[in-house]
Design brief:
- The complex is a heterodimer of chains A (about 110) and B (about 220).
- Chain A is mainly α and about 110 residues long.
- Chain A has 4 helices and no strands.
- In chain A, helix 1 packs parallel to helix 3 and helix 2 crosses helix 3.
- Chain A is elongated.
- The N terminus and C terminus of chain A are likely disordered.
- Chain B is mainly alpha-helical.
- Helix content of chain B is about 65%, strand content about 0%.
- Chain B has 10 helices and no strands.
- In chain B, helix 1 crosses helix 2, helix 2 crosses helix 4 and helix 3 packs across helix 4.
- The longest helix of chain B has 28 residues.
- The two termini of chain B are about 40 Å apart.
- In chain B, about 40% of the residues are buried.
- Classes of the chains: A mainly alpha (about 110), B mainly alpha (about 220).
- At the A-B interface, helix 1, helix 3 and helix 4 of A face helix 2, helix 3, helix 6, helix 7 and helix 8 of B.
């Protein structure tokens, strides 16, 4: 594609060729920098002439940013106590301890498993 | 997470893993401290009950220790733990009778946005906006994600088709890379990207409806 001869009479790249519907199909790859350079350029040309798609892109980014915040606990809530084996249910704790003890003794595989 | 932080976290995990392989309980406890909260969040997205999620996450640690000799170290420890937890949470959710229709599992659940949003084929400017999006208000609740909006966004994520929800969770909430998500869930790169994009698109539409509702009322 990039090897095409850019002759002076060659029509400008058709900026209308990418529709808004197509744009919303690829904004995810655009935001994640996964678009090929030529597709990225086409998308940016579209954005240059299409304010609604710029709004859409901004909202898409805002959505991702809001979702990312779910990883941190709400500011109003005390962080939970640091998780540890001690907080595990008795049966789970004993199973894990047994498995680790076997590893210490035999150093080998505990055989079975799921 | 910066690259340096990610790299040193992976190095710490690798060192802890070796110690756990030798049966070191303190190293196991350290791994639990580093990953358990994340596993809980993942379990919670499948089973809506907090105590069930805790059970699933704890069971994941048992499966982890049982499977230590099968882990070849090609994926990061965290990715491996995520994979175990998701598999357990999935089967637990199904056992808890929330049977999931097959159509809800896949990535293709219709057009990304309703057809009416775009000019129809044959019309002038076909495929371009008929009903364009309008800018959202500058909402501090969205930026800080507190209160009501946080709870409702979590609910919206819970209604996503399972495969979309899993990818969204790992990529956008847990911050795993695309490659790590493919490893944890056994997806192709294309599938992973499609599922992530569909999930985000739905959540954007959900936020749009949220703000439309606010301005209408």
């Amino acid at each position: 594609m990039s090897t095409a001869d850019p002759s002076p009479r060659r029509p400008l790249p058709n900026v209308a060729e990418l529709t808004c519907r197509e744009v919303i199909g690829v904004v995810g790859d655009y935001v994640d920098a996964e678009l090929l350079p030529e597709d990225r350029a086409r998308l940016e040309q579209h954005l240059f002439i299409c304010p609604p798609c710029v709004t859409y892109l901004a909202q898409y980014r805002e959505t991702v940013a809001a979702t990312r915040q779910l990883a941190s606990p709400p500011t109003s809530v005390e962080p939970p106590a640091s998780p540890s084996v001690e907080s595990f249910g008795g049966e789970v704790r004993e199973t894990v301890r047994g498995l680790l003890a076997r590893r210490r003794q035999g150093g080998g595989a505990p055989g079975g498993g799921r | 997470m910066s690259l340096e932080v990610a790299a040193s976290a992976a190095a710490n995990d690798a060192a802890l893993l070796e110690a756990v392989r030798a049966g070191d309980e303190a190293a196991f406890t350290a791994l639990v401290g580093r990953h358990h909260t994340r596993l809980l969040r993942m379990a919670r997205m499948h089973v809506r009950d907090a105590s069930l999620a805790e059970e699933v996450a704890q069971e994941a640690w048992v499966v982890f220790v049982e499977g230590l000799d099968r882990f070849e170290g090609r994926a990061a420890v965290g990715t491996w733990l995520c994979g175990i937890t998701i598999n357990l949470a999935r089967s637990r959710a199904r056992r808890e009778a929330r049977s999931v229709p097959v159509s809800a599992l896949g990535g293709d659940d219709g057009p990304l946005l309703p057809d009416e949003r775009f000019r129809s084929a044959g019309a002038l400017f076909a495929g371009n906006w008929a009903t364009p999006p309008t800018a959202w208000p500058d909402d501090p609740e969205r930026r800080l994600l507190g209160g009501e909006l946080r709870r409702r966004l979590e609910e919206a994520i819970a209604t996503l088709p399972e495969a979309q929800r899993e990818v969204l969770l790992l990529r956008d909430i847990e911050g795993l890379s695309g490659e790590e998500v493919c490893n944890a869930l056994g997806l192709s790169d294309t599938n992973q990207r499609v599922l992530l994009h569909r999930a985000r698109t739905r959540l954007r539409a959900w936020l749009e409806a949220h703000y439309d509702g606010k301005s209408a009322s």
